[in-house]
Design brief:
heterodimer; A: about 160 residues; alpha+beta; B: about 180 residues; seven-stranded mixed β-sheet; two-stranded antiparallel ribbon
Chain lengths: ~160, ~180
Protein backbone atom coordinates (compact mmCIF):
# COMPACT_ATOMS: atom_id res chain seq x y z
CA UNK A 1 0.00 0.00 0.00
CA UNK A 2 2.77 2.35 1.02
CA UNK A 3 4.61 1.75 -2.19
CA UNK A 4 1.45 2.06 -4.21
CA UNK A 5 0.65 5.44 -2.74
CA UNK A 6 4.15 6.72 -3.20
CA UNK A 7 4.34 5.36 -6.71
CA UNK A 8 1.91 7.97 -7.87
CA UNK A 9 4.33 10.61 -6.64
CA UNK A 10 7.32 9.36 -8.51
CA UNK A 11 8.86 11.68 -11.03
CA UNK A 12 11.35 11.11 -13.72
CA UNK A 13 14.63 12.90 -13.31
CA UNK A 14 13.92 14.63 -16.57
CA UNK A 15 10.48 14.93 -17.99
CA UNK A 16 11.09 15.64 -21.60
CA UNK A 17 13.35 13.57 -23.73
CA UNK A 18 12.47 14.59 -27.27
CA UNK A 19 13.54 12.26 -30.03
CA UNK A 20 16.88 13.55 -31.15
CA UNK A 21 19.94 11.95 -32.61
CA UNK A 22 22.47 11.39 -29.88
CA UNK A 23 25.63 9.41 -29.52
CA UNK A 24 24.51 7.16 -26.75
CA UNK A 25 25.10 3.46 -26.67
CA UNK A 26 22.30 0.95 -26.38
CA UNK A 27 23.01 -1.41 -23.52
CA UNK A 28 21.43 -4.12 -21.46
CA UNK A 29 22.33 -3.82 -17.84
CA UNK A 30 21.44 -5.54 -14.60
CA UNK A 31 21.65 -3.91 -11.22
CA UNK A 32 19.93 -2.39 -8.22
CA UNK A 33 18.15 0.96 -8.31
CA UNK A 34 19.69 2.93 -5.46
CA UNK A 35 19.43 6.19 -3.59
CA UNK A 36 22.44 8.08 -4.94
CA UNK A 37 22.59 10.64 -2.16
CA UNK A 38 23.03 8.19 0.68
CA UNK A 39 25.23 5.95 -1.46
CA UNK A 40 27.74 8.60 -2.48
CA UNK A 41 27.67 10.88 0.55
CA UNK A 42 28.33 8.19 3.12
CA UNK A 43 26.06 10.02 5.57
CA UNK A 44 24.30 6.78 6.50
CA UNK A 45 27.38 4.59 6.56
CA UNK A 46 29.20 2.53 3.99
CA UNK A 47 27.68 1.75 0.62
CA UNK A 48 26.90 -1.82 1.63
CA UNK A 49 24.44 -0.55 4.22
CA UNK A 50 22.53 1.84 1.97
CA UNK A 51 21.40 -0.67 -0.61
CA UNK A 52 18.83 -3.44 -0.48
CA UNK A 53 16.21 -3.94 2.18
CA UNK A 54 18.09 -2.10 4.95
CA UNK A 55 17.75 1.22 3.20
CA UNK A 56 14.54 0.73 1.32
CA UNK A 57 12.31 3.14 3.24
CA UNK A 58 14.88 5.92 3.24
CA UNK A 59 15.56 5.35 -0.46
CA UNK A 60 11.89 5.78 -1.27
CA UNK A 61 11.69 9.02 0.67
CA UNK A 62 14.86 10.27 -0.99
CA UNK A 63 13.43 9.45 -4.42
CA UNK A 64 10.18 11.21 -3.51
CA UNK A 65 12.21 14.20 -2.36
CA UNK A 66 14.00 14.49 -5.67
CA UNK A 67 17.26 12.64 -5.04
CA UNK A 68 18.29 11.12 -8.36
CA UNK A 69 17.92 7.37 -8.57
CA UNK A 70 20.92 5.44 -9.81
CA UNK A 71 21.35 1.96 -11.13
CA UNK A 72 24.23 0.20 -9.39
CA UNK A 73 25.33 -2.16 -12.12
CA UNK A 74 26.97 -5.51 -11.68
CA UNK A 75 30.08 -3.83 -13.02
CA UNK A 76 30.15 -1.68 -9.86
CA UNK A 77 29.40 1.50 -11.79
CA UNK A 78 26.51 3.78 -10.87
CA UNK A 79 24.33 4.97 -13.73
CA UNK A 80 22.25 8.07 -13.01
CA UNK A 81 18.79 7.18 -14.28
CA UNK A 82 17.34 10.04 -16.31
CA UNK A 83 14.21 8.28 -17.35
CA UNK A 84 12.28 5.14 -16.62
CA UNK A 85 9.44 4.10 -18.86
CA UNK A 86 5.96 4.66 -17.48
CA UNK A 87 3.95 3.12 -20.26
CA UNK A 88 1.66 0.53 -18.74
CA UNK A 89 1.58 -1.46 -21.93
CA UNK A 90 5.32 -1.78 -22.25
CA UNK A 91 6.54 -2.34 -18.75
CA UNK A 92 3.76 -2.47 -16.23
CA UNK A 93 3.90 1.21 -15.42
CA UNK A 94 6.83 0.89 -13.05
CA UNK A 95 8.29 4.13 -11.77
CA UNK A 96 11.22 5.18 -9.68
CA UNK A 97 9.50 4.62 -6.37
CA UNK A 98 7.95 1.29 -7.19
CA UNK A 99 11.35 0.07 -8.35
CA UNK A 100 13.55 1.51 -5.62
CA UNK A 101 16.09 -1.07 -4.46
CA UNK A 102 14.74 -3.63 -6.91
CA UNK A 103 17.28 -5.52 -8.94
CA UNK A 104 16.29 -5.11 -12.53
CA UNK A 105 17.56 -6.02 -15.94
CA UNK A 106 17.02 -3.08 -18.24
CA UNK A 107 17.58 -2.04 -21.79
CA UNK A 108 18.31 1.55 -22.56
CA UNK A 109 20.67 4.19 -23.81
CA UNK A 110 23.89 4.86 -21.96
CA UNK A 111 25.55 8.25 -22.07
CA UNK A 112 28.84 9.11 -20.42
CA UNK A 113 29.50 12.75 -19.73
CA UNK A 114 31.82 14.55 -17.34
CA UNK A 115 32.81 11.18 -15.93
CA UNK A 116 29.23 10.40 -15.00
CA UNK A 117 27.16 7.56 -16.41
CA UNK A 118 23.61 8.44 -17.44
CA UNK A 119 20.96 5.94 -18.38
CA UNK A 120 17.66 6.39 -20.20
CA UNK A 121 15.78 3.15 -19.66
CA UNK A 122 13.57 2.12 -22.54
CA UNK A 123 12.46 -1.19 -21.10
CA UNK A 124 12.62 -3.05 -17.82
CA UNK A 125 13.21 -6.57 -19.07
CA UNK A 126 13.02 -8.34 -15.73
CA UNK A 127 12.62 -7.46 -12.09
CA UNK A 128 13.81 -9.65 -9.22
CA UNK A 129 12.31 -7.44 -6.54
CA UNK A 130 14.68 -6.81 -3.64
CA UNK A 131 16.89 -9.88 -3.32
CA UNK A 132 19.53 -7.89 -1.46
CA UNK A 133 18.49 -8.61 2.14
CA UNK A 134 20.87 -6.19 3.78
CA UNK A 135 18.60 -5.71 6.80
CA UNK A 136 19.87 -9.06 8.05
CA UNK A 137 23.29 -7.48 8.54
CA UNK A 138 22.47 -3.82 9.11
CA UNK A 139 18.90 -3.64 10.39
CA UNK A 140 17.07 -0.59 9.11
CA UNK A 141 19.28 2.29 7.95
CA UNK A 142 18.56 4.83 9.36
CA UNK A 143 16.56 3.39 12.24
CA UNK A 144 14.15 6.28 12.38
CA UNK A 145 12.71 5.31 9.01
CA UNK A 146 10.77 2.48 10.61
CA UNK A 147 7.17 3.74 10.67
CA UNK A 148 6.04 4.43 14.24
CA UNK A 149 2.93 2.35 13.65
CA UNK A 150 5.12 -0.67 12.89
CA UNK A 151 7.31 -0.07 15.94
CA UNK A 152 4.20 0.15 18.13
CA UNK A 153 2.77 -3.00 16.58
CA UNK A 154 5.97 -4.94 17.18
CA UNK A 155 6.26 -3.70 20.75
CA UNK A 156 2.67 -4.64 21.47
CA UNK A 157 3.16 -8.09 20.01
CA UNK A 158 6.43 -8.61 21.64
CA UNK B 1 36.51 4.19 3.03
CA UNK B 2 34.83 2.52 0.08
CA UNK B 3 32.36 5.39 -0.08
CA UNK B 4 35.24 7.80 -0.41
CA UNK B 5 36.77 5.67 -3.14
CA UNK B 6 33.50 5.67 -5.03
CA UNK B 7 33.14 9.43 -4.70
CA UNK B 8 36.69 9.83 -5.91
CA UNK B 9 35.91 7.60 -8.86
CA UNK B 10 32.80 9.60 -9.68
CA UNK B 11 34.82 12.76 -9.45
CA UNK B 12 37.67 11.54 -11.60
CA UNK B 13 38.56 13.66 -14.57
CA UNK B 14 37.50 11.94 -17.75
CA UNK B 15 39.18 12.56 -21.06
CA UNK B 16 37.24 14.67 -23.53
CA UNK B 17 36.68 11.78 -25.88
CA UNK B 18 34.54 10.06 -23.23
CA UNK B 19 31.84 12.73 -23.53
CA UNK B 20 28.62 11.90 -25.27
CA UNK B 21 25.82 14.31 -26.08
CA UNK B 22 22.74 13.91 -23.94
CA UNK B 23 19.48 13.05 -25.67
CA UNK B 24 17.39 16.05 -24.86
CA UNK B 25 16.74 19.51 -26.04
CA UNK B 26 16.94 21.81 -23.03
CA UNK B 27 15.79 25.40 -23.04
CA UNK B 28 13.09 27.49 -24.59
CA UNK B 29 10.89 30.50 -24.07
CA UNK B 30 9.55 31.48 -20.69
CA UNK B 31 7.84 34.51 -19.21
CA UNK B 32 8.39 34.88 -15.49
CA UNK B 33 9.10 37.59 -12.95
CA UNK B 34 12.05 37.92 -10.62
CA UNK B 35 12.16 38.69 -6.92
CA UNK B 36 11.92 42.42 -7.69
CA UNK B 37 8.84 42.02 -9.85
CA UNK B 38 10.77 42.55 -13.07
CA UNK B 39 9.64 40.56 -16.10
CA UNK B 40 12.17 37.95 -17.12
CA UNK B 41 12.37 35.81 -20.23
CA UNK B 42 14.92 33.41 -21.68
CA UNK B 43 16.77 36.53 -22.85
CA UNK B 44 17.56 37.21 -19.20
CA UNK B 45 19.88 34.22 -19.29
CA UNK B 46 22.03 35.81 -21.97
CA UNK B 47 25.16 37.68 -21.02
CA UNK B 48 26.78 35.38 -18.52
CA UNK B 49 26.75 31.65 -17.87
CA UNK B 50 24.14 30.32 -15.45
CA UNK B 51 23.51 27.49 -13.08
CA UNK B 52 19.80 26.86 -13.26
CA UNK B 53 17.76 24.87 -10.76
CA UNK B 54 14.06 24.26 -10.31
CA UNK B 55 12.97 24.06 -6.68
CA UNK B 56 11.33 26.12 -3.99
CA UNK B 57 12.38 28.18 -1.05
CA UNK B 58 10.48 26.18 1.59
CA UNK B 59 11.61 22.80 0.26
CA UNK B 60 12.94 20.59 3.05
CA UNK B 61 14.14 17.84 0.72
CA UNK B 62 16.51 17.98 -2.24
CA UNK B 63 16.64 21.79 -2.34
CA UNK B 64 18.40 21.79 1.01
CA UNK B 65 21.21 19.92 -0.69
CA UNK B 66 21.12 21.32 -4.19
CA UNK B 67 20.75 25.04 -3.50
CA UNK B 68 23.64 25.33 -1.00
CA UNK B 69 25.81 23.27 -3.32
CA UNK B 70 24.89 25.47 -6.24
CA UNK B 71 25.76 28.54 -4.16
CA UNK B 72 29.08 27.03 -3.07
CA UNK B 73 29.84 26.20 -6.67
CA UNK B 74 29.18 29.81 -7.68
CA UNK B 75 31.61 30.97 -5.00
CA UNK B 76 34.25 28.47 -6.10
CA UNK B 77 33.87 29.67 -9.67
CA UNK B 78 34.11 33.27 -8.52
CA UNK B 79 37.43 32.40 -6.90
CA UNK B 80 38.60 31.09 -10.26
CA UNK B 81 37.51 34.29 -11.95
CA UNK B 82 34.56 32.62 -13.66
CA UNK B 83 31.38 34.56 -12.95
CA UNK B 84 28.24 32.48 -13.18
CA UNK B 85 24.69 33.54 -12.39
CA UNK B 86 22.72 31.29 -10.02
CA UNK B 87 19.09 30.96 -11.07
CA UNK B 88 16.21 29.38 -9.18
CA UNK B 89 12.89 28.81 -10.90
CA UNK B 90 10.29 28.05 -8.31
CA UNK B 91 7.87 25.15 -8.51
CA UNK B 92 5.82 26.71 -5.71
CA UNK B 93 3.95 29.72 -7.06
CA UNK B 94 1.75 29.91 -3.97
CA UNK B 95 4.50 30.71 -1.49
CA UNK B 96 7.33 31.85 -3.75
CA UNK B 97 5.95 35.25 -4.66
CA UNK B 98 8.33 38.03 -5.70
CA UNK B 99 8.01 39.47 -2.21
CA UNK B 100 8.84 36.24 -0.42
CA UNK B 101 11.64 35.44 -2.86
CA UNK B 102 13.14 38.86 -2.22
CA UNK B 103 13.69 37.72 1.37
CA UNK B 104 14.64 34.14 0.57
CA UNK B 105 17.04 34.71 -2.32
CA UNK B 106 19.88 36.39 -0.39
CA UNK B 107 19.87 33.50 2.07
CA UNK B 108 20.72 31.20 -0.83
CA UNK B 109 23.17 33.43 -2.69
CA UNK B 110 23.65 37.16 -2.94
CA UNK B 111 23.42 37.07 -6.74
CA UNK B 112 20.57 34.58 -7.00
CA UNK B 113 18.05 35.37 -9.70
CA UNK B 114 14.83 33.92 -8.29
CA UNK B 115 12.01 33.48 -10.77
CA UNK B 116 8.34 32.91 -10.23
CA UNK B 117 5.08 33.35 -12.07
CA UNK B 118 1.62 31.90 -12.35
CA UNK B 119 1.17 28.18 -12.69
CA UNK B 120 0.79 28.36 -16.47
CA UNK B 121 3.98 30.36 -16.91
CA UNK B 122 5.91 28.08 -14.57
CA UNK B 123 4.61 25.00 -16.33
CA UNK B 124 5.87 26.42 -19.61
CA UNK B 125 9.29 27.01 -18.07
CA UNK B 126 9.40 23.47 -16.68
CA UNK B 127 8.43 22.09 -20.05
CA UNK B 128 11.18 24.07 -21.74
CA UNK B 129 13.76 22.62 -19.40
CA UNK B 130 12.30 19.13 -19.11
CA UNK B 131 11.53 19.33 -15.42
CA UNK B 132 8.68 17.51 -13.73
CA UNK B 133 7.01 18.81 -10.60
CA UNK B 134 4.06 17.53 -8.69
CA UNK B 135 2.41 18.53 -5.45
CA UNK B 136 2.63 15.48 -3.23
CA UNK B 137 0.89 16.75 -0.15
CA UNK B 138 0.51 19.63 2.20
CA UNK B 139 1.74 20.36 5.70
CA UNK B 140 1.06 23.25 8.03
CA UNK B 141 3.54 25.39 6.13
CA UNK B 142 1.90 24.79 2.77
CA UNK B 143 2.18 22.49 -0.22
CA UNK B 144 4.96 19.92 -0.62
CA UNK B 145 6.37 19.26 -4.06
CA UNK B 146 8.42 16.52 -5.66
CA UNK B 147 10.43 17.88 -8.54
CA UNK B 148 13.33 17.19 -10.83
CA UNK B 149 16.62 18.02 -9.22
CA UNK B 150 19.41 18.21 -11.76
CA UNK B 151 21.24 21.52 -12.02
CA UNK B 152 21.74 22.83 -15.54
CA UNK B 153 24.87 24.59 -16.67
CA UNK B 154 24.06 27.12 -19.38
CA UNK B 155 26.49 29.15 -21.43
CA UNK B 156 26.46 32.94 -21.83
CA UNK B 157 23.91 32.57 -24.62
CA UNK B 158 21.59 30.65 -22.35
CA UNK B 159 22.31 27.41 -24.19
CA UNK B 160 22.48 24.13 -22.31
CA UNK B 161 25.99 22.82 -21.70
CA UNK B 162 25.61 19.96 -19.28
CA UNK B 163 23.83 18.43 -16.30
CA UNK B 164 25.09 18.53 -12.76
CA UNK B 165 23.56 15.86 -10.52
CA UNK B 166 22.87 17.45 -7.12
CA UNK B 167 24.67 14.60 -5.38
CA UNK B 168 27.98 15.90 -6.70
CA UNK B 169 30.08 17.98 -4.34
CA UNK B 170 30.47 21.67 -5.09
CA UNK B 171 34.16 21.21 -5.92
CA UNK B 172 33.29 18.68 -8.58
CA UNK B 173 30.49 20.86 -9.93
CA UNK B 174 32.91 23.78 -10.18
CA UNK B 175 35.47 21.58 -11.89
CA UNK B 176 32.96 20.45 -14.50
CA UNK B 177 31.62 23.97 -15.03
CA UNK B 178 35.11 25.38 -15.43
CA UNK B 179 35.90 22.81 -18.08
CA UNK B 180 32.92 23.90 -20.16
CA UNK B 181 33.12 27.61 -19.54
CA UNK B 182 36.78 28.00 -20.22
CA UNK B 183 36.37 25.92 -23.36
CA UNK B 184 33.41 28.06 -24.36
Amino acid sequence: MYRTVLASLALSALAALPAQAAEGKRIEIKGELIDTWCYFSGVMGGPESVVGTAHHTCAMWCAAGGIPVGLLGEDGEVYMVLKLPKDDESNGGETFLTLTNDTIEAEGMHYKRDGINYLVVSEVISNEGIPNKTHEDFGVIPGNTIPKSIVKEVLEEG
Amino acid sequence: MRALAIIMALAATIPAQAESPLPFDIGGPFNLVDQFGKKRTEASLVGSPSLLFFGYAECQAICTVALPRMAETIDLLDAKGVEVRPVLVTVDPVRDTPKSLRKAAPRIHSRLLALTGDETALAAARKAYGVESEQIGEDIEGPLYAHGSFIYLLDAEGEFLTLLPPVLGSERMAEIATKYLIKN
